[in-house]
Amino acid sequence: MEPGSSEATASRLTARGAKTRSRIIATAADLMRVRGVGGTTLDDVVVASNVSKSQLYGHFEDKQALVRAVIEFVGDRKIAEERERLSKVMTFAGLRRWRDALIENNALQEGRYGCSLGSLANEVADQDSIARQKLHDLFAAWQELFEDLLRRFQKAGLIPQEADVSQLATGLLAAVQGGYLLAQTSRDVTPMASAIDIALSHLHMLDSKRDAS
User: Fold this and answer.
1) DSSP-derived secondary structure letter, 17
2) Is 89 exposed, middle or buried (0-12, 13-18, 19+ CB in 10 A)?
3) Of 201, 99, 204, 96, which Cα lies nearest the Cα of 159?
4) Are 121 and 78 in contact (CB under 8 A)?
């Protein structure tokens, strides 16, 4: 392909367009995390991402379309982060370190903004069925990470083979999400720590009951 050919020009424009789209989504995600979906306008996104309205509408026909893209962006990033962290957990000590890192990270802003994914769910799940399904799939992926961890625990003999990993994973995810919400409303991560600690204590009890029997 010659550098000056129409194909090369189209390729450059496509790459530039993809970069602009990514910048719009990332900027919108940052704004919505701080201001909420309802408190973020398309004009806000235009100004903050340094694009024109025509550029924004060239990629997103309306705010709903942008919000859906933000959900995918935020969700993929959150799941990737949790996959990286949880994949390393092989013991109860490792699970405790995961718990400590999660709470310490949320404490940096006193739990002010809650879970990036959970906050989006609170705002849009009842307004947009497509967005709700995207969120459902992302939370299901997060739960699967907990299930994988618990299966490793079973294989290592840390929890009983007959333990219901799906149910336990649901409990862990609920503790995390509920903890984020309590920390957000109280501006204090202590309730979050308590919620997760109770879930982890239940896992320890399963191990203790097995030993006792």
Assistant:
1) H
2) buried
3) 204
4) no
